[in-house]
Amino acid sequence: MEGGSSSINGGMLYHEVQESKLCAVHCVNTVLQGPFFSEIDLAALASDLDRTEHQMLNTQHHQESHNVSMDGDFSIQVLQKALEVWDLQVIPLHSPVAEPAQVDPELENAFICHLQDHWFCIRKVNGEWYNFDSLYAAPEHLSRFYLSAYLDTLKGFGWSIFIVRGNFPKECPMTSAEATNGYGQWLLPEDAERIIKSSSSGQRQQHHQQPPRTPPTEDDDLNAAIAASLRENGGEVGTSMNSLDDDLAAAIAASLKESSPAVVSVVNKDINAANTPPAVATLTDATPPVTPATGSQEGTSETESNKSTLQDK
């Protein structure tokens, strides 16, 4: 685990933008927060693994490698070997030893995510979580509230997720000339945020296995929950809204107003209906007299007859 209270690399974030199919290299380096490995380094590790496997299985070394593909994609074993150099362990999230992380991922410091031919890292740096996907122009900040939901979303899309545990390097032990590899960059958190905000979704690099983007705000999750509730209840949410206090109901309606006007109208309608007393009728000159709801004309005649009899007496 990361020890001490001092910041990593002076508070800077290290990010690598996608180069060819070197996402495994980018992933390892962003886990370590520095340009520690090149594609040549990982290829050498893959070759060592192949040699060991061939010796154990008594097969020919010239057979196809299971640790690096022809287009440069590396296996999880290669990433494990690279991180073992720095005394770091790579553990599948679904394994029993990772059970605490399944409940509370905030306890960890780094996750590696993989689907087919793409790798990327989610990393805690200086107490804040970032998505260091090399398909993004800069690391994207992840709120703690959304971290668990985002990991669950990735799993739902079929991504394999691994935990990285151990003593992470706190500084990049290289000179300024060595601390770059042509596709790496050092960014302050505010610079990364500015780059992400200025990059529209159409301008960002696209990839057929690109993971779902993290949402810009947590209100989107609230919107989805309310919309789902509306669908389940046929749009009648007045009863459930009555159980909320007025401030919470107003907050929900306000958060929905920006992105889900259709849902807002239904929610507001039900809130108003639940909180508005019945309308009181007012009489005007044009209002016709109201006929009594009980009694009949025959009953009225009988009453007048009784009055006449009493007067005669």
From TrEMBL:
Cellular location(s): Nucleus
Region (Disordered): 197-220, 278-313
Classification via InterPro entries: Ataxin-3, Josephin, UIM_dom
Broad class of enzyme this protein falls into: hydrolase
Organism of this sequence: Artemisia annua (Sweet wormwood)
Active-site annotation: C23, H118, D133
Keywords annotated in UniProt: Hydrolase, Nucleus, Protease, Thiol protease, Transcription, Transcription regulation, Ubl conjugation pathway
Annotated GO CC locations: nucleus
SMART domains: Josephin, UIM
Protein name, UniProt field: ubiquitinyl hydrolase 1
Annotated Josephin domain residues: 10-179
